[in-house]
Amino acid sequence: MRGLVFDLFAGPGGWSHALAVLGVRDVGLEWDEWACKTRAAARLQTIRTDVALYPVHPFVGRTWGLLASPPCQAWSMAGKRLGLLDQPLVHTAVADLAAGRDTRERLLASCRDARSLLAAEPMRYLRALNTVGEPEWVVMEEVPDVLPLWRQYAAILRSWGFSVWTGILNAADFGVPQTRKRAILLASRARTAEPPPPTHARYPEPESLFGPGRAQWVSMAQALGWGATDQPVPTVCAGGGPGGGPEPFPSGSRKALANARDRGTWAPRSDRVVPPARRAARRSTHENCTSTGPAPCTCEAHRWSWSLRSNNQSHATIRPLSEPAGTLFFGHRANECTWIAGPPATQRAEAGPAPVPDPIRITAPEAAVLQTFPENYPWAGNKGQQFSQIGNAVPPLLAGHLLAPHLGVPLNPDDFTLAA
């Protein structure tokens, strides 16, 4: 008999939104104020609490599935990675909790990052639940460096009768427009635990005798509905200046190509991020543009090659719009993601050298869509608080692929891009 699904580190609702799309409601435990407000606006059931302090007894006898994506800041490449130094302590905590010994307070005093030990918290819940034969299934997710810890969990869960799989999955292989790699643990008492079959690949694979084939990775241009994937161009209309083609920054309120304003009149389009059902109309490489000022409109355009830079560091991942984004992470100024333009692919000799637009920071709605949240997901807080929630969330589409087999329901990827 089905019970409840609990998410121990619920965040803004990556797991919860996926469950809702699949027809299941969960209860999320979350401490962050703004993530809780986002969840409330999305009508997701939430208990605002510190997972490390919340008692286990309300779960016992009621739990069908358990989800856990402990905070990744202590382990992530985007941070100081003190979790790697604390890893022996976390392994000790997991072993002790599995044996019924709570040594967290002593171990926490030795941790270089207090968040490191949160990765051991799921074992506290799992041990208590196992006494009554719960839960039926478990799904956990973290940054790749946590895989050795998931393997420790796996060994313990197998000794309790679970079938368990652990490994690294790339979100792009499941239709997420982002090459986000994560360590995954899948465990079940009712079925053989195994990863879902990938639906996408770097290069398309046709159907054959060996399988159904896979589509090509979803590009940022496809996900955001920004016109052709090979040569997205801005719409800037000015006499003798750049102009014509799909405008890659849909919000008319954004600062886009400020230098072009000095050369003429910028005509923003009314486009915004749209779901796949409406994207086909956005694929044209050229379209008419309309000047809103006295300057004549010239549609013979210079073209820029737009890319997304994952942060401000020298080794930042830079991906063109025709590819998925690199892993999106936020929370520090050095981790800002920006749209950058390369040299124009073509230019008219009489127009002279084409100026390259300044970098433009990605917006929260753009980042959220690249995480496969709905375009109108109700993010709470200021820009920084929204970016932090988005970067820490599980991509709902990836979550859906991981959850559907445990729920016994079919997954329709298109459902994850429709408005909430």
Automatic annotation (TrEMBL):
GO MF, one example: DNA (cytosine-5-)-methyltransferase activity
UniProt biased composition (Basic and acidic residues): 260-272
Active site, per annotation: 72
Main enzyme class: transferase
Gene3D superfamilies per record: DNA Methylase, subunit A, domain 2, Vaccinia Virus protein VP39
Keywords, alphabetical: Methyltransferase, Restriction system, S-adenosyl-L-methionine, Transferase
Pfam families: DNA_methylase
Stretch list, region Disordered: 260-293
Highest taxon listed in the record's lineage: Bacteria
UniProt cross-references to InterPro entries, sorted A to Z: C5-Methyltransferase, C5_MeTfrase, SAM-dependent_MTases_sf
Signal peptide: none
Catalytic activity, EC: 2.1.1.37
UniProt record, GO biological process: methylation
Protein family (similarity comment): Belongs to the class I-like SAM-binding methyltransferase superfamily. C5-methyltransferase family.
Name this polypeptide is given: DNA (cytosine-5-)-methyltransferase
Source organism of the structure: Streptomyces pulveraceus
